[in-house]
Design a protein that fits this description.
Blueprint lengths: L3 E8 L2 E8 L4 E5 L13 H4 L4 E5 L16 H14 L5 E6 L1 H12 L4 E7 L6 H14 L7 H9 L1 H4 L2 H12 L7 H10 L2 H5 L6 E6 H10 L4 H10 L3 E6 L6 H4 L1 H13 L4
Parallel strand pairs: 3-4, 3-5, 5-6, 6-7, 7-8
Antiparallel strand pairs: 1-2, 2-4
C-alpha cells in the first residue's frame, strides 16, 4: 500500500489540509458538506496504486481553517488552482462529491486548461425551494445546543443509510467541527445554482456524472432534490455521460470504494470519452 501523507497549504484566507499519495497522473478528490477528505479514506489507497491521488479539506470544513468570509464557488475554485500550483501540477482530473462536485465543475468551467477529465458524484440543479430546504436543514444541524442533544440527534439521523457505527462516528466528528459556524459549502452551492447551467455549459472536458440511486431517494424524501435535477446537469454539460450507482447512498465513497474505483479508473483510462 502506498503511503498517504498529510500536509498544509498556506493561503491568504487560512491553511488548507490536504492528503497526497501515489505517483503518476493526478486525480484530485473534493468532498461533500459537512465532511472532509476523510470521505475518501477507503478510496485513496486503491487509487494510489495506479496514480497520484490528492484529497483536500475545503476551507470552512474538516481540518482546514474557517475562511474570513462566506466563500463562493469562484473562491473555492481559486483554492484548487493554488493547491495545484503548489504541487506543480499543470493539469489534473477531478472527482467531486456533492459540494465538491460543484467546486470541481467551476474549476473546469473557469480554468479549462487545468482539467483533464471530470467526475461529478451526486450533483443537482436545485430549485429555489430546494435551496431553502437544504440551507434550513444544515443550519439547524450545525447549531450548538445547551444540553448537547444535537449529538444524539445527528447520530440517529444517519443510521438508516450508514449502518456502520465507525463510519457514523467519523461523519459526526467532521460535522462537529462545523458546529456554530455558517454552512459554508451549502451557501456556496445555493448561490451557484442560480447560474449553474450557464457555468456548466462552459465545461469542455469529458465528464462523467455518478448518481447513487439510494441517495437520490433520500434527498427526494427530504425535499432537497429529485432525479430530474441530475438530468438537467447532464444536459447542460456538452460531453457529459451519466451512470447510476445501484445501492449508492450519501456515503457511497466510503461504502463502495471498490466499485467506485473501478468506475473512476475505467473512465480516466479510456481514450474514447
Amino acid at each position: 500500500m502506498k503511503a498517504i501523507k498529510r500536509a498544509f497549504l498556506d493561503t491568504e484566507d487560512g491553511q488548507i489540509l490536504y492528503r497526497i499519495g501515489g505517483e503518476g497522473e493526478s486525480l484530485l478528490l473534493l468532498h461533500m458538506t459537512p465532511r472532509s477528505s476523510d470521505e475518501f479514506r477507503e478510496l485513496m489507497p486503491i487509487l494510489t496504486e495506479t496514480r497520484c491521488a490528492i484529497a483536500m479539506d475545503l476551507l470552512g470544513l474538516g481540518d482546514s481553517d474557517k475562511p474570513p468570509r462566506i466563500y463562493s464557488m469562484a473562491d473555492y475554485a481559486r483554492t484548487i488552482i493554488a493547491l495545484l500550483d503548489e504541487l506543480n501540477i499543470n493539469k489534473t482530473s477531478i472527482l467531486g462529491s456533492h459540494t465538491g462536485a460543484y467546486v470541481a465543475a467551476e474549476v473546469a468551467a473557469a480554468y479549462p486548461e487545468r482539467v483533464e477529465k471530470l467526475i461529478l458524484s451526486n450533483i443537482d440543479h436545485l430549485s429555489e425551494e430546494e435551496q431553502a430546504t437544504l440551507l434550513k436543514s444544515l443550519d439547524e444541524a450545525l447549531q450548538i445546543k445547551a444540553n448537547a442533544s444535537e449529538l444524539r440527534e445527528r447520530w440517529s439521523a444517519r443510521q438508516s443509510y450508514i449502518k456502520s457505527q465507525e463510519l457514523n462516528h467519523r461523519f459526526l466528528l467532521d460535522e462537529m467541527k462545523c458546529y456554530g459556524y455558517p454552512p459554508y459549502g451549502a451557501l456556496a452551492v445555493t448561490a451557484y445554482c442560480r447560474n449553474i447551467q450557464a457555468r456548466l455549459s462552459l465545461i469542455k472536458c469529458p465528464t462523467l456524472i455518478l448518481s447513487g440511486n439510494e441517495e437520490i431517494k433520500l434527498l427526494t424524501e427530504l425535499g432537497v432534490s429529485k432525479p430530474e435535477n441530475r438530468q438537467v446537469i447532464a444536459q447542460a454539460i456538452p460531453q457529459a455521460k451519466m451512470l447510476d450507482i445501484e445501492g449508492g447512498t450519501l456515503c457511497v465513497m466510503n461504502q463502495m470504494p471498490e466499485e467506485i474505483s473501478r468506475v473512476v479508473v475505467d473512465f480516466l483510462d479510456r481514450t474514447d470519452n
